[in-house]
Input
Amino acid sequence: MGTEGHNTRVIAGRYRLEARLGRGGMGVVWRATDQLLGRGVAVKELPFDETLSAADARRQRDRTLREARAVAQLSHPHIIVVHDVVEDDERPYIVMELIEGGSLADRIAGRGPVGAVEAARIAVDLLGALRAAHAAGVLHRDLKPDNVLLEAGTDRVVLTDFGIAQVAGAPTLTENGSFVGSPEYTAPERMSGARTGPESDLWSLGALMCAALSGESPFHRDSLGGILHAVVVGDIQPPAQAAPLLPVVQGLLERDPDRRLDADRAERMLRAFLDTGRTPQAPPPGFAPVERDAPRGRPQEFSDREPPVSPADGPGPDRQDEPFLRQPTRRVLVAALLVAAMAGAGVSAAALLMDEGGGDGGRTPKSSAPKTPTAGPSARSTRTPSTPAPTSVNGSASP
Output
């Protein structure tokens, strides 16, 4: 059991919790000291639901610890390092490296959006992190500016908060029929419950790039119903600031996950932009992703992933003549209609649309590439030295 001190608490006889860094939907993060090794760490205290029976609480703890241990096996320079997973007084805690620096959301709020060069650099680093996680069978499922840390002094980009990650072949943190994540950054196939896979994280990256460049997600609306409508059926309008990186943003925000730009192709296009100042419409043969980013071993498969699209369905996201909806299944069409009807009425459609567990593997709504913004490209990226307040995993509360 944790011991109390002067404004401190020691868990597992080793980690002294000293100051709260942030609170989110998946727990509280503390600045702490590892008394055994004498180093600073971040400790995430996972929530405890007192309404659960003892058996259900134990099952929840077991699932949490199993997933945390799986994520701890990831090793990548742009993924948060998990040092330890412990239990104290039957409550799980995750011990991670302490990143001295703010989140991308903090950066946007404090200094405004970033330029195209900086957005491309951040996206390249995140693509490497996602590729490593996906190859190990781990989906992040909550990629957003709050969960991307920028280390002070080095500008190292760190993907954090795998608190709602899904691990291939293992139960998820949430029960079937519930939804977790941030709607503005959630792929339409997850909204409709049709499927989830690595492609969903890439959609989230496309929305994150728009937020980094303009200050907010292109799917930001004043109500949940409005967000759902924008994600599932609304016209996709990338911000004018995305013009220099538009081929990548368009490819990532393709509603059909089978036609969405994959991580390797997106990274090659972004590396070409960083080298030449221009983003090609298709991945160039050079600028290959850095092989050290990929973990060893064969990628794991996700059980709810659809078979690849047939050749008859046409080429990938470079094709521009695709109709907005192409033979959607009844489930997805009904979901889209419900979103449209409920958005104006201000009714929460989450219970009807956000069903992770009951996906039928149906096809998601198809769309042409997002509309090209009419304004010109943004100014070149500028960065000024700063020392943001320390933060760590999920340092900002989830919306």
Observations:
- The first strand starts at residue 3 and ends at 4.
- DSSP finds ten helices and eleven strands in the chain.
- The chain has a mean pLDDT of 74.
- Residues 34 and 358 are 42 Å apart (CA to CA).
